[in-house]
Amino acid sequence: MRQLWSLDPMTYACHPLRRNDCAWPESNCYVDLWVELLHTMGVDPRAALAFTLAVDVEGDQWTFLKFPLADLYGLYGVDVFELNVWRPLIAHVEEQLALGRPTLAEVDAFHLPDTSGTSYHTEHVKTTIAIQALDTDGRRLGYFHNAGYYELEGTDFIGVFRLQERATDEERLPPYVEVAKLRARPPLAGRALVAESLSLLSLHLDRGPQDNPFRRYGARFSTDLEGLAGAPLRHFHGYAFATFRQFGPAFEFAAAYLRWLEANGERGLEPMAAACELIATAAKTLQLKTARFVNTGRVFAPAPIIESMATAWDATIAGLTARYGAMARQG
User: Fold this and answer.
1) Cα 149 from Cα 130, distance rounded (Å)
2) Radius of gyration (C-alpha) of the chain in whole angstroms
3) pTM (two decimals)
4) What whole-number distance in Å separates Cα of residue 195 and Cα of residue 25?
5) Backbone angle region of 116, left / alpha / beta, with phi > 0 → left and psi within -120 to 50 → alpha
6) CA-based nearest residue to 306, from 63, 57, 58
7) What's the pLDDT score for residue 230?
8) Which alpha helices (DSSP H) does 42-139 contain, by range?
9) Closest CA to 257 of 275, 244, 243, 239
10) CA distances from 104 to 28, 80, 303, 306 (A)
């Protein structure tokens, strides 16, 4: 097997950001696999979490969490680019692994064993994996997905790479694929890493919401509940992923980020980290109560929960902006 790192799915230990005792042990496949990729590279993914503080409510959903690619380069020297899929995907993966680069590819979760109990061999769902090991002859694949590292083989290997597509399938659009050029330049460390992270924090605070997104969300939440009432359970799951599963993990990540800064010399951030943690746990409560409402019709009062998140957001963003916004207005 050609591989970038010698990893065993049975012994792989995920980063503490993704431990099972987190309020949100999973966010979305893209953010979670990057946490594990950076962790496996030997760098600390917490330094890159400033972007979580810029999440906003975007109409019928919240900002989809993604590490900005410019941040990955600035902090860790990882250069990510889109791959032009003009040959079979497996050929591209082989070539990039030979160059020492993991491939991030959209695949069908129907063929991913780690989704057993959800989509594995039951439902066709688009998701992203990061491929770091490949045995073409033995039809084995090692990949990061969500908060772990896994292997697949046999018919799942055939399905992931579409090796049995018919001639009529050639009109299907190729998947979206990215390649990560690791260590395009050396990663930052020590005070240089902290300084660059603070610079990114300043940028993300300035591009973030100009008013409280939780109060805007609260103003439409009753309408959202009406739309969920009596709808199929899959509709709730889609809504939850677009909302709770974005802003809940975002603020749990933000709490971890602020505590990382505190541990690296930035004092006085614990109250704001605690406020972010409050948002994350309140988001989990709101999701559970909404799920119960959808399943049983049991009504609840969402306003106090949402207002608690809004108050915590105000305290966090006001404190951080005063201290780091445009690096405290260039002063």
Assistant:
1) 9
2) 21
3) 0.94
4) 28
5) beta
6) 57
7) 85
8) 69-76, 89-98
9) 275
10) 14, 10, 40, 36
Query: Residue ranges of the domains in the chain?
Result: 2-42+79-181, 191-330
Alpha carbons 267 and 183: distance in angstroms, whole number:
31
pLDDT at residue 233, as a whole number: 87
In terms of Cα–Cα distance, which of 67, 2, 11 is closest to 38?
67
Model confidence band, residue 36 (pLDDT cutoffs 50, 70, 90): very high
Q: What letter does residue 24 receive in the DSSP assignment?
A: -
Go through the chain and tell me how many residues it has: 331
**In this structure, what token pair is assigned to residue 33?**
């696999």
pLDDT band per the 50, 70, 90 thresholds, residue 315: very high
pLDDT at residue 53, rounded to an integer: 98
Q: Which residues of 254-291 are buried (b: 16+ CB within 10 A; e: fewer)?
A: bbbbbbbbeebebeebeebbebbbbbbbbbbbbbebbb
Which residue's structure tokens are 């590819």? 105
* pLDDT tens column, 210-236: 999 999 999 999 999 999 998 888 899
